Amino acid sequence: MDQRGQRQARVRVRGHGRGARGRGVRMRGGGVVGRIQVSDEIRATIIDHVINHGLSYREAAQRVQPVLRRSTVVSIVRTFQNENRVHRLPHAGGRRNIFSVQQEAAIVDMVVANNAIKLREIQTAVIADQGTFQNINSVSVSTIDRVLKKNHLAMKQLYRVPFQRNSEMVKEARFQYVQRIMELEAEGPHTFIFVDEAGFNLTKVRRRGRNIIGHRATVTAPGQRGANITMCAAISNDGVLCHIPTVGPYNTERLITFLDALRHRLIPPQEGGLLRPGMPLFVIIWDNVAFHHSRLVNEWFAAQPRMMMQFLPAYSPFLNAIEEFFSAWRWKVYNHRPYDQMPLIDAMTAAAQEIGAEECQGWIRHTRRFFPRCIARENIACDVDENLWPIRHERIDND
């Protein structure tokens, strides 16, 4: 080995390998441990040894545990002499936040005001607004995306809300509907029954599933769409009162048949057309579909002294509890795997029987949570709880 090689070897031995010098704290006995943070107590002890007792840097380094390097002691004493402090400064590495708390709140307000706004549009608005964002001359889209995630804003499916949904006429109709319901409750015993029709088709299946990565998720379904099956159902606080499926859509004649079956379910034959004090009145609440207003339906209710109907205001499905019943009922039908384990009609009946009174009571309570907003004639953009009650504990049903 030549002289140059011997000199490089001695340097590596002396420094314990490339890059090892200065990377640790030497322990008693010659061992070296990884870099540690010197606590404020040890720093105060070092200052006391050097300043008050006159020890050398090396002696002060040997008096503490773990043993420190002389250079570390020099740095601690120099900091005390120059800055008059013993404690360590908090970590301040990395890039600082571009936006202040107020500026992040302004970005969040942009998204709340316009749910369809794009990141590029937010970027342009931030740079153009030299009032709120006067110190921001450039910002990346990824930075804006991080700000939105930090404030719990995420990409979601957009729900289309008709312009007429919150027109003055519709809000007034909601107000009148709630007033009418409260008047009926004050007059005497009334049983509110929610009635509606919903279509069903076997070709509708779940849109998402699971499978091994690289393989499609598949599910078997009928090859042809076939005819729709329509279910007409009625629910109240007592649960599902009546449900009759039929092939094709409902019409006036089929609705009259359903109302007859519902009447037999509610009113015993011996009571017939009697209306005595203390007898409850049954209020049928349904939407404004055309055949609900037909002449035959009006004549049928005129002949029933203990049954009456109340129409829901337009663009207000959140006031009809049976909407949630049909949402739950459809998926229960799919869980029974019609045409695989049982006929479709049997699956529809079995699914309706699985829905109990407690579930119906919860759906009815949920519709009544909208009553104060209807009384106040407020805009109701979406019937999703998160939009109406942003604070989580206000969305919990305590009844």
From TrEMBL:
Gene3D superfamilies attached to this UniProt entry? Ribonuclease H-like superfamily/Ribonuclease H (3.30.420.10)
Any single Pfam family the record assigns to this protein:
DDE_3
The UniProt entry, under InterPro entries, shows: Homeodomain-like_sf, RNaseH_sf, Tc1-like_DDE_dom, Transpos_IS630-like
- Give the Gene Ontology MF terms in alphabetical order: nucleic acid binding
Per the database record, which ranges form the Tc1-like transposase DDE domain? 192-340
User: Which residue ranges have biased composition labelled Basic residues?
Assistant: 7-26
Segment Disordered: which positions? 1-26
> What is the protein's name according to its record?
Tc1-like transposase DDE domain-containing protein
Its source organism is Merluccius polli
